[in-house]
Design goal:
heterodimer; A: 582 residues; alpha+beta; 5-stranded antiparallel sheet; 13 helices; B: 334 residues; alpha/beta; D-Maltodextrin-Binding Protein, domain 2; 2 domains; 6-stranded mixed sheet; 5-stranded mixed sheet; 14 helices; 44% helix
């Protein structure tokens, strides 16, 4: 049972028992009052009967009118009292009935006594008077006895009631003490336990805060006072037990960070929707040190709806100056690194350009002397046809073959270098047209090979048209070249993804039924001068697919092959969606 | 809620105990006395005003009080008292007048308490003897039982009617023979106890003329015992406790009380109903007992005419037992 419930139970039990005590005391008092009133009536009746007894006894001395009048008045008064007699139980009722009966008879005796005519010397009159007087006295005595008995009954009832009330009241007070004692004892134990738990929790929290080098704070929005712990004070360079108000805080916080800080505080104190308090700000300590502070907090609210209000804002602070300094250092080093990377990239690009230029120039300029080697070789062969022996002629032919191969090599090298050195601007390019032109260029080869080329609808994209033409030409030529023996080449060109889906890339596939390759060579075939077959089997210098790769790369895409030996190959060219002319 | 009901809550348990404690402090029920019942013998004159004894015996209150009671019946209180004095019984029921008369010869008797009052004595006369009104009694033979209520109330009646004792012929007849005497015409009238008067009227029918002789002045019906018995008062306390219980019963269940008394004393229920209002069943010790005893002893001395000092009535009263059992029932001046 919770403390609150125990206290409520204690209050409830105390109130109930107190109410019972009050009820018993008041009902007892009321009962006593009734008994006291009855007692007063009984006393008066006794007084009246005594007075009657006294006065009638004196009638012996003669019928005094004032005495007779007094007797009658007392009797009338007695009758009135008897009429007003209260009764509570059957016994009293019986006694009162008896008293009334005796009172009526008393009246009879009184009248007889009053009217008695005592003649001196008359024995019978004297005896009759004596009998009447004794009977009258008996009657008054009986009334007096019964009244006394009523008093005794009333008295004993009062005593009984008082004892009962005392016992009940004492029992209830005992119960009150017991219940409250028990509840307070148990609650006290619980409170002590809670206090111990709270102390432990506080110590643990403080340890955690110490470990995290954090301070704890609580802000009261009504008094506008900030309660802070020792860590908080240490971070702020403040000592003592004072708790700062708004003014002190605004003096400590760096003016540049103050607006942001106050905005966050105000947002956290909005009763309807208090925002989590999270802010970084600088403070200027008394020792002139500028420190970076990170604060987190949350509002504690009470009530619902329109009555909802923020009663407290509490949270943690930590000194993040070192972290901030580290971050700043890191940021600076990052900037430096970026700068250096940029510089290095520029250098590399320049070197690359130089290399490309060199390649171009080399391949271009080497062609002229090579051509001269071929021409003079030819001239030498024609002029000395007779004088030269067979071996010399064979040497010259081999020299000419080598020059031809070198020329081809230079041509392809030139083509390869032109991919990056001789670029055209990106224009709207119809890939269908490009494929057609490429096939036109390869028309003779297609016929020789008895090849069939199937073209599906291809998209129009933004591209370097010349290079794309080169791309298709190389890939189709490749498909025709590596045909399976005895089987005419079949080439299918189609778009696997045509860019109609929003944000999707283009995928153009060139599928053949050629010899295929092992997929482990899928990357190697795109490197310059890499060949998987001997020159005697398939002619060429091994740069066609490297050119394709470079063209696709230049367009921001990639090329890959899906192939299996003997089952043909599919080259998949992926171009980014940004190539969409729209 | 279920969990709350069945879980033991120390405060709730303490509250429960406290309530039990407060109940426990209330006055308890009377316990039956331990040990074997005490024997006591009663000499009783069966009458409506001996009703408390009849009820206690019939309802088992004597047994409850730890008494083994034996009851002997006598025609009058005087005879019952005499039997007690002879040692035939320990306690007797007797009218105050008879007790006052016995004081002169038996100073060891004491009053234990009054157990009722009655105003039922009558003068019953025969019309065939020319008696129509009280003054016709003059010169007639009137039966009475000396030293009983019939003795005093005959005197009081005659005096109130202006007749002196010497004007009549008073015939002292034992109480149980009064009825026979008037029926057979041995006397012209009798001063009779209630039961005999009632029986005489019933039998004489039209020939009977009667008057209330007590002039509404009741007499006490007392329990008397010898002084020696008060030395071991426990048996008397138990007797009074049983009679007080009878009193409570009669007060609340008057109809049943009437039936019980009629059955016990073998009375006609009609007689009990007729006389009930003239009888009061109450255990008490009142000042009026003193007054009446004083009156009667003085009257007896006067009647004898040889002078003498009236006895100190207070010596013959023993209020202690009733005072201990029921203090509120004792209202005598002290």
């Amino acid at each position: 049972m919770g403390i609150q419930r125990r206290i409520l139970l204690s209050i409830g039990a105390s109130l109930a028992i107190s109410f019972l005590i009050v009820f018993f005391v008041f009902s007892n008092l009321r009962s006593m009052e009734v008994e006291t009133e009855a007692h007063q009536v009984y006393d008066k009746i006794k007084d009246k009967t005594y007075a009657l007894n006294l006065l009638t006894g004196r009638l012996w001395n003669g019928q005094n009118p004032s005495r007779i009048r007094q007797i009658r008045e007392i009797k009338a008064s007695l009758e009135n009292l008897l009429l007003a007699m209260p009764f509570i139980d059957l016994r009293e009722e019986s006694l009162i009935r008896q008293i009334r009966q005796n009172s009526r008879e008393l009246g009879y005796y009184l009248e007889k006594v009053i009217s008695a005519n005592l003649k001196p010397g008359s024995r019978i009159e004297v005896e009759r008077f004596n009998v009447l007087i004794s009977q009258l006295r008996m009657k008054t005595q009986l009334i007096s006895d019964d009244t006394q008995q009523l008093k005794e009954i009333s008295q004993s009832r009062m005593v009984e009631k008082q004892e009962k009330a005392d016992l009940t009241t004492l029992s209830l007070i005992g119960a009150l003490i017991l219940v409250n004692g028990a509840i307070f004892f148990l609650s006290g134990r619980r409170i002590l336990k809670i206090q111990e738990d709270l102390k432990k929790q506080r110590e643990q929290r403080q340890l955690a805060l110490d470990a995290a080098k954090m301070g704890w704070w609580q802000y009261d929005p009504v008094s506008r006072i900030l309660f802070w712990d020792d860590h908080y004070r240490a971070i702020f360079g403040v000592w003592g037990y004072s708790h700062p108000g708004d003014e002190t805080l605004t003096r400590i916080i760096h003016p540049e960070d103050l607006p942001q800080f106050l905005a966050k505080v105000n947002a956290a104190l909005i009763p309807s929707d208090p925002q989590p308090f999270a802010v970084e700000y600088r403070i200027k300590r008394k020792d002139e040190m500028i420190r970076w502070i990170e604060a987190y907090g949350i509002a504690s609210t009470q009530g619902e709806g329109e009555n909802k209000r923020v009663v407290s804002l509490f949270g943690t602070v930590s000194d993040i100056t070192e972290r901030k300094e580290s971050e700043e250092a890191l940021r600076k080093s990052h900037l430096e690194l970026e700068l250096r990377v940029e510089e290095r990239t520029s250098e590399l690009e320049a070197m690359n350009r130089e290399l490309q230029n060199f390649t171009y120039i080399a391949s271009h300029d080497l062609q002229e002397p090579l051509r001269k080697v071929q021409i003079f070789g030819e001239m030498l062969l024609n002029r000395s046809k007779v004088t030269l022996d067979n071996v010399s002629r064979d040497y010259i032919r081999r020299m000419q073959d080598a020059a031809t191969r070198m020329k081809n090599l230079l041509d392809t090298l030139l083509t390869y270098s032109r991919v990056t050195s001789k670029v055209e601007p990106m224009t709207e390019t119809d890939l269908n047209q490009c494929v057609k032109e490429a096939l036109l260029n390869l028309e003779i080869l297609v016929e020789e090979k008895n090849a069939k080329v199937e073209i599906n609808r291809l998209p129009t994209i933004m591209a370097d048209e010349t290079q794309i033409l080169q791309l298709f030409q190389n890939l189709i030529a490749n498909a025709l070249k590596y045909q399976r023996k005895g089987e005419p080449p079949r080439v299918k060109i189609y778009a696997q993804k045509d860019g109609t889906e929003k944000g999707a890339d283009y995928e153009i596939c060139i599928e053949d039924n050629g010899i295929g390759i092992d997929e482990k060579y899928a990357d190697e075939i795109f490197m310059p001068f890499r060949r998987l077959h001997g020159r005697s089997e398939y002619e060429g210098v091994g740069i066609g697919l490297a050119i394709c790769s470079k063209i696709v790369e230049r367009h921001g895409g990639n090329i890959r092959v899906r192939s299996e030996p003997g089952k043909g190959s599919t080259f998949i060219v992926t171009l980014p969606s940004g190539m969409n002319p729209r | 809620m279920k969990r709350f009901l069945f879980k033991i809550h120390p405060p709730a348990v303490l509250l429960f105990l406290a309530i039990l404690l407060s109940w426990g402090c209330q006055p308890g029920v009377e316990e039956k006395p331990a040990g074997p019942p005490l024997k006591i013998s009663l000499a009783v004159s069966p009458a409506t005003y001996s009703g408390l004894i009849a009820i206690a015996d019939e309802k088992g209150y004597f047994k409850e009080a730890g008494l083994d009671v034996s009851i002997s019946l006598y025609a009058s209180g005087r005879e019952a008292l005499e039997a007690m004095c002879r040692g035939e019984a320990q306690v007797a029921t007797v009218a105050d007048i008879a007790f006052a008369a016995k004081i002169f010869t038996e100073p060891s008797i004491r009053i234990l308490a009054s157990i009722g009052t009655n105003v039922g004595n009558q003068i019953v006369a025969r019309k065939d003897r020319g008696i129509q009104k009280p003054s016709d009694l003059r010169g007639k033979r009137i039966g009475f039982s000396s030293q009983t209520t019939s003795d005093y109330f005959l005197y009081a009646f005659l005096i109130s009617e202006g007749i002196l004792l010497k004007d009549i012929t008073a015939v002292d007849i034992p109480p149980d023979q009064l009825l026979q005497a008037i029926l057979e015409g041995d006397v012209d009238a009798v001063s009779a106890f209630e039961i005999f008067g009632s029986e005489a009227k019933k039998r004489m029918k039209e020939n009977a003329v009667f008057w209330e002789s007590q002039n509404n002045l009741s007499y006490h019906w007392l329990l008397a015992a010898k002084e020696s018995l008060f030395r071991s008062p426990e048996v008397l306390k138990r007797l009074l406790r049983a009679l007080l219980k009878s009193e409570g019963f009669a007060l609340v269940n008057s109809e049943e009380a009437k039936s019980v008394i009629a059955r016990k004393w073998d009375f006609d229920p009609e007689f009990i109903r007729e006389t009930w209002h003239r009888t009061r069943l109450q255990v008490s010790f009142n000042q009026s007992i003193v007054t009446s005893l004083q009156n009667y002893t003085e009257w007896m001395i006067n009647k004898k005419g040889n002078g003498g000092t009236p006895p100190d009535i207070l010596d013959y009263l023993h209020t202690g037992v009733l005072d201990e059992v029921s203090p509120r029932s004792v209202t005598i001046f002290r």
